[in-house]
Specification:
2 domains; disordered N terminus; Arc Repressor Mutant, subunit A; Beta-Lactamase; 14 helices
Length: 313
């Protein structure tokens, strides 16, 4: 199986409302948290408290514990991705953990993980075994004992059923993303055209934001942000900046207004921000742009040729 090289699909999965709802319900039913993380392990999304096991919190309170947990989690996540199937295993501390790889078009784009579940009912014997495993952990014996006996327990058979449930959910999560991708590929998107028109009418408003534009287009903020970037090739904020700078260039070339007047007329809230954005997109300051205009002798037959626009995102 291939491993993802872009996090676009991962971000889309994390933004799906099904993920948040299922995660919340799972935690309420089992007391166990669920997270979605990238194959490399550098991005992790969790709703609620990721570490519900008090003993795991103690372990992760130390640098050595964090390192051991990360190595264990990442290694098993990669193994599940290579095998292309869910993996139920015992972590370095002896807890049941599970990882379910998520594939989109045959590419491993994410993994669902859950667990931190005691493999056997808590007991004095079990506590003694746990202490041996965690001999490297510097912690008060009373605190360690309390954390151990407060850790969640689930029979292995139930843990297997939970793994199966997460596998079914992973399939449904991918199906939701597949439908969204299909819709995106069929549409130039009326919503995006509406959003562009809205920006064209309101760019001079310094308060123009993604939320209100998404609402005008009839989409949620998270989904709008994703499809807007996919359709235009740039984030919404950069698109608004580009619209404002294009308007500023027109005013600089056609009016005698000062850069300060133009700055506020185009929706910028400060001259410093105006100059920074203008320089970022045009590779010159507004005053330099104006100087080049004057140097052109206002000749309509020889229009200004500004430096080529380079994406800065």
């Amino acid at each position: 199986m291939k491993t993802v090289t872009s996090n676009a699909d991962f971000e889309s999965l994390a933004a799906l409302p099904e993920f948040a709802r299922f995660s919340t319900i799972l935690t309420k039913l089992t007391g166990v948290a669920m997270s979605l993380h990238s194959p490399s392990g550098d991005i992790r999304i969790t709703y609620g408290s990721e570490i519900r096991n008090p003993l795991c919190r103690l372990i992760r309170a130390s640098e050595k514990g964090v390192a051991r947990c990360n190595v264990c989690d990442l290694g098993h996540s990669r193994k599940a991705g290579v095998q292309g199937k869910p993996l139920l295993y015992k972590c370095h501390a002896g807890f049941f953990d599970m990882v379910i790889p998520v594939f989109v078009r045959g590419v491993h784009v994410a993994s669902i993980s859950s667990g931190q579940i005691l493999a056997e009912p808590p007991s004095p014997e079990g506590f003694a075994k746990m202490k041996k495993r965690l001999v490297w952990l510097s912690s008060d014996d009373t605190i360690l004992r309390k954390a151990y006996f407060s850790a969640p327990y689930m029979p292995k058979e139930k843990v297997k059923h939970m793994t199966g449930l997460l596998e079914i959910f992973a399939v449904q999560l991918c199906e939701s993303l597949r439908r969204i991708r299909g819709l995106e590929s069929r549409l130039e998107r009326t919503e995006i055209r509406k959003a562009k028109d809205y920006v064209g009418q309101h760019f001079a408003d310094p308060g123009l934001g993604l939320a209100e534009t998404a609402a005008f287009a009839g989409l949620s903020s998270a989904y709008f942000s994703h499809v807007f970037k996919q359709n235009t090739g740039m984030p919404f904020t950069r698109y608004v900046q580009r619209a404002r700078i294009e308007a500023a260039k027109r005013l600089l070339s056609r009016t005698g207004k000062s850069a300060s007047e133009i700055c506020f007329a185009c929706g910028f809230n400060s001259q410093a921000n105006f100059i920074r954005v203008f320089s970022s997109l045009e590779h010159m300051t507004p005053s330099h742009f104006k100087t080049l205009l004057l140097a052109s002798d206002h000749s309509a037959s020889t229009p200004l040729s500004a430096a080529p626009f380079k994406k800065a995102y």
